[in-house]
Amino acid sequence: MIRDPAARYPIPWSTPVGLAIMIIAEIALAAGSRFVAVWLTPIMWTGYILTIDGVLQARNGRSWLLSRRREIPLLIMLSVGVWLVFEAYNFHLQNWRYEGVPTDPFVRGLGYFWSFATIMPGVFVTAELIQGLLPPARMMTVPPGATWPAFSFLAGLAMILVPLAIPQPVASFLFAPVWIGFFLLLEPANQALGASSVLRQRSAEKGSFALALLLGGFLCGFLWEAWNFQAFVAEGAYWIYMIPEPLRIFGWHFGQMPVLGLLGFPPFALELFAMYAFLRHMLGGNEMFGQNDWMN
């Protein structure tokens, strides 16, 4: 469907509902609500996603919740599944741990599921909004015979395997390769398979897809750490980072996160998209879930 870029559409229900969720949660947190302190991260991310999705609908006439409903269950399940991959890495790397989570296994599991389910939606709605604010980008293509995809694939493979193959005291220093390795591994695979690609811009009318993801990842990282710090101050449920002693020399923190650690969120957004695009393609792509005009 061809849409008028100058057109504006009514603000849907999701934006006022999302804003109300975030405002009420902040008021309740300030009033000392134990429930909100424990569940702050998924509550705030749910409100944020609803808000930004509604803004997308008002700006573009399309959004994830209102225009791509067939894809929402997939987005949620893969968001949880992909983050569990990183949780599995953390068993060996031991880079973070959770504090203040509910003791009941069922309730704790529900909290984890709800929190993990917001990761991909939060990054993707943010990146899509940012992309609409960027100037149009030139299409990017892979020259015939280019060798970088093979090098990228091998480098990514090494980055995700080596941290698992070495002892934990050393592996704990290798969290950075894990945050970029899956992108380097899957980006050339996605291009070869014809799946959605970060680097291959498919529409000259859109802003840079890669830049939007990088900026979206950074903004989401800022929000993650800000809300996590609020939960920490309120003695709710939060996570802390177990930084190896030699890396503590950098000192400055934003909330619980060392400031330099914020640089890991932009490549993490690239990685999330590459993993989502690969798995979506493997599960049937557009034939099963419908055309996603942002991803193509």
Secondary structure layout plus pairing:
Blueprint: H1 14-30, H2 34-60, H3 64-67, H4 72-93, E1 96-99, H5 105-117, H6 119-133, H7 148-165, H8 168-171, H9 175-193, H10 209-233, E2 238-241, E3 253-254, E4 257-258, H11 265-282, H12 285-289
Antiparallel strand pairs: 1-2, 3-4
Helix pairs in contact: 1-2, 2-5, 2-6, 2-10, 4-5, 4-11, 6-10, 7-9, 9-11, 10-11
Description of the molecule:
By secondary structure, the protein is mainly alpha-helical. It contains twelve helices and four strands, in the order ααααβααααααβββαα. The strands form two sheets. Strands 1-2 form a two-stranded antiparallel sheet. Strands 3-4 form a two-stranded antiparallel sheet. Helix 6 packs across helix 10. The longest helix has 27 residues, at 34-60. It starts with 13 loop residues before the first helix and ends in a 7-residue tail after the last helix.
Quickly list its features.
4% strand, disordered N terminus, mainly alpha, 296 residues, two-stranded antiparallel ribbon, single chain, 12 helices, 63% helix, two-stranded antiparallel sheet, globular
